[in-house]
Design a protein that fits this description.
mainly alpha; 20 helices; 2% strand; disordered C terminus
Length: 489
């Protein structure tokens, strides 16, 4: 008989309230629920647009600052390293005060840094503002995912997870379009990308400011008002106490989440950050052709995320992740071996379909795994600590390429160049194996009703207690773990 963790890859059949399926649930969505979901998706799109503006401009930046491509990737590493700070700051603010204003402040901080990036004159200044952007970027994901998912019906959270995560690929795609169409026509070059990013971030901040708070926090405030709400200082004391209780109860889960997200971040950054440089340097493509191939890859990412997220609602989060990563491994040869544009673009589409398909399940997997009162802090910090560990992905590949060389023919002349194809193939293969193992042995709390839990500034939140409800309702969302379907019902 297979081990329990293998058997549990396919979760129990989801018990739907009143027989609601995906299509009826979509029809039942209100305008406010859609708007809250869209603001979460847009926030993550803004983040990705700025982040990949650097990846798309590595060679141009190297020329402007008179540096090597490997030195420019230091900016990417710094951004990833500082994201954990932002995840802690904005995650705590969001779980303590609500989703709305912390996300607005975070987006405006991003906008300020983007404008600052566009005006730097030296490489040192560039590194400094990219490190600051890491702090701003670190807060966005946890707040965006929690805003988008906690307001959706349970039946739509798998699909919603896939769509909101692909704000990342959409941001990359939008940045590629701007880089392809506007940047070549602008006298300001790469700086135009960051002006466009600032416009997108400020517009999203305005939209979030005009959108009401999440229902979870409105309900908690209404309950406290009815029972005599404690003052702000008392709420903060409760929040600190419940945070300590959560860490005592879930420290193993915290460590596992960081290990999981380390693998995921190595997978995404290892397959994306240096990809345009790989096509231009190792395959001899023009910047225009590399950008087109990038856009095709991102189309695969967007479709993969949505499809995998929806599929996970039926076959489980972990099994969907494993299948997507197996797909990545199967298409690595098509991603690195061909020399023609069409074959490499097809490889990019298939690999990114798998990479971002697996990533499409991450927001809901982390949200369901999280202590329910800490759905902004726990996923955000786990994500960004994983990012910090994987921060050197681009530099590892750049150094590997400098040591592993190949020869290409360019304009009839042989040229010795870094062999990024082989380096990336080995890198992603090793990461894929690690991710399959860490995913299989991990927990899954499929279709959890985390929206019923107390907020982090209420007594009992650190023990995963639910809001008071009908007689017989579990006091803790964790009481549902491992129960059979009839017991849950």
């Amino acid at each position: 008989m297979a081990p329990r963790f293998i058997q549990s890859l396919v979760p129990r059949r989801e018990k739907r309230h009143n027989g609601i399926g995906v299509i009826p649930a979509l029809r039942s969505l209100t305008f406010l629920q859609l708007l809250q979901f869209i603001t979460g998706w847009l926030a993550w799109t803004c983040d990705a647009f700025d982040f990949f503006s650097v990846s798309l401009s590595v060679n141009t930046l190297a020329t402007d600052f008179n540096k090597k491509a490997g030195e420019i990737t230091t900016a990417i590493t710094l951004t990833l390293l500082f994201r954990s700070i932002g995840a802690v700051i904005f995650g705590v603010l969001s779980d303590r005060f609500g989703r709305r204003w912390p996300l607005v402040a975070n987006l405006l901080f991003c906008c300020t840094i983007e404008i600052g990036t566009s005006f730097v004159q030296t490489f040192t200044q560039f590194l400094a503002v990219r490190a600051l952007f890491g702090v701003a970027m670190g807060g966005i994901w946890g707040l965006a995912a929690s805003t988008a998912l906690e307001n959706l019906p349970v039946e739509l959270r798998g699909l919603g997870s896939g769509i909101v995560q692909q704000g990342y690929a959409c941001g990359y795609l939008l940045a590629s379009i701007v880089n392809l169409t506007i940047v070549p026509r602008s006298s300001h070059g790469w700086r135009t990308l960051f002006w466009a990013a600032a416009c997108l971030s400020s517009s999203t901040a305005l939209l979030r400011a005009l959108t009401p708070e999440s229902a979870v926090f409105l309900r908690a405030k209404a309950v406290q008002k009815a029972h005599g709400a404690p003052d702000t200082a008392q709420k903060t004391k409760i929040f600190i106490k419940e945070t300590k209780a959560m860490l005592r109860s879930h420290w193993k889960r915290c460590i596992y989440a960081v290990l999981l997200m380390t693998g995921f971040n190595f997978l995404s950054h290892g397959s994306q950050d240096l990809y345009p440089t790989y096509l231009e340097t190792s395959k001899g493509f023009s910047t225009h052709a590399a950008t087109i191939a990038n856009m095709i890859g991102n189309c695969g990412a967007i479709s993969g995320g949505a499809i995998a997220g929806w599929t996970s609602q039926y076959i489980g989060r972990r099994l969907t992740i494993v299948l997507c990563i197996l797909l990545v491994g199967a298409f690595i040869p098509l991603w690195i071996l061909p020399t023609s544009f069409s074959a490499l673009a097809a490889g990019a589409f298939c690999v990114q379909f798998g990479v971002q398909g697996a990533w499409g399940v991450v927001p809901i997997q982390l949200a369901e795994m999280s202590p329910p009162a800490f759905r902004a802090t726990f996923p955000g910090v786990a994500y960004q600590l994983g990012n910090m560990v994987s921060a050197a992905s681009a530099q590892i590949e750049a150094i590997g390429g400098n040591n592993l060389r190949t020869t290409i023919v360019e304009d009839g002349v042989e040229k010795n160049v870094p062999d990024y194809a082989t380096v990336q193939g080995i890198f992603i293969g090793v990461v894929a194996i690690y991710l399959i193992i860490i995913t299989i042995v991990g927990p899954e709390n499929h279709a959890a009703h985390f929206e019923a839990a107390k907020t982090a500034f209420e007594e009992g939140a650190g023990r995963d207690e639910m809001e008071e409800g009908e007689e017989g309702k579990p006091r803790s969302i964790r009481e549902l773990d491992g129960k059979e379907e009839d017991e849950v019902a």
